[in-house]
Structure formats: structure tokens, C-alpha cells
Amino acid sequence: MNSPEQPLPMFDEVLLCTPQTTAEQVGLFLRRCLIPCSRGEKIYTMLYADELSYDVSCKAEELFQDLQRYNSSYRLIILCNCEREHSYIPSAFSQYKVHMIPQRPHAEIQQYLQHHYRVTQPLSSAASVFKDNMCVGIVSSRRAGVGK
Fold it and tell me: Domain holding 24: CATH number?
């Protein structure tokens, strides 16, 4: 948010982890992050890495240790749920841990995201169905099973 015109991360820069995420998926992601090449200054982010299975987490740490020797200028952020700080990945990377609290007000964060997710020419876009021509929307319901 410090650079409002900077684009949001691309699909290859973010790995959304779940218990079903495989070691192969994590390995491909870490290779993109840690093998030096001329891709610019990308910032790679693993979201919810604490949800990885134990086996996948072990393999991820091992691969990270092997690959980081080849690149000292990588930029990797691993986000975990603070309630699961004793799972494998947060424990393995604990020496790098930084507790973070959002520094910007909720309304400012929303405005920043609206700037990046607004479609400029909505005439031929499905974004016209969302409020203010957004290309991303959240549909929710307080009741389960109502077709959302």
C-alpha cells in the first residue's frame, strides 16, 4: 500500500496453502522464489503455511534449506495463523518470525483494493454485475445452503 500504483501480486507469486497442498506444489513455488533468474523484484508469499501437512512441511523446509544457498536475495513472506504457531512451518522458521498487525485502517485497505480490482471498461466485462465495476466480489449468507 506504500506504492499505490504498484500492481498486486501475480498468480505465480502467491501460494494459498491448505491441508491438501502437495509437496510438488510447494516445491514448484519455492523454486520460483529461490532459484535466481531475471524476473525482477517479485515478492513471493505463502498464505496459511501452517495448514500444510507434516510431511509436506518437512519436505518444504528441506527444499528451502537446499535452495536458499543459491540465492541470497530472495523475497519470501510466509503468513500463518497465530493460533497455530506451534505447527511445523511456523516452528521451523521461528527465527524469522515477525508479529504483524495491519497498520492501516480497514477503510483505507478497502479503497486500495478497490483501486486495483476496478475494471476500467466494464461494457464487455462480467465485472458489471458487481458493485462499482469490481472484478472481484464476495457473496455470503448468514444461512447455510441458500445457493450462494
Answer: 3.40.50.300
Phi, psi of 135 (to 5 degrees): -90, 0
Contact by Cβ (8 Å): 84, 47: no
Instruction: Tell me, rounded to whole angstroms, the distance of Cα 68 from its chain centroid.
Output: 20
CB atoms inside a 10 Å sphere around CB 90: 19
Same domain, 76 and 118: no
pTM: 0.73
Number of domains in the chain: 2
Which range of residues forms the domain containing residue 98? 1-102
Q: For residues 143 and 39, which has the higher predicted lDDT (pLDDT)?
A: 143
Taking the C-alpha atoms of residue 131 and residue 120, their distance in angstroms, rounded to an integer, is 13
Q: Can you say whether the dihedral through the CA atoms of 87, 93, 98, 103 is positive or negative?
A: negative
